[in-house]
What does this fold into?
Amino acid sequence: MTDRLADLTRDLIAFRDERDWKKFHTLKDLILSVGIEAGELMELAQWIDTAELEARTTDPAFRQRLSEEVSDVFLYLLLICEKTGIDPIDAAMHKMAVNRRKYPPEKARGRAVKYTDL
Ligand SMILES: [Mg+2]
It folds into this structure.
């Protein structure tokens, strides 16, 4: 894990423990929380088209909300990783290697289809 990510994880755990919230952070509830926060992230895109959504990324207030919801998802993912001993960087690098095998550029380039349909 990178130093910055390790520092962030330590800060997050300290934040949790200062509030005695570890007892609420079951694996089940952490996983549900990722989905709930992902829903809040998706709310930012609800009812507007792609062009409007992308235009809003230049609005400081919107960027702040986007940053906060991305962070909420990310922080719950870090809590899941900390609880289960998964190194998020190692896991993501491994998944990238898997994805490279699943989606070879000569088959996947410019195509938005699942690997099973390549
Ligand atoms: Mg949120």
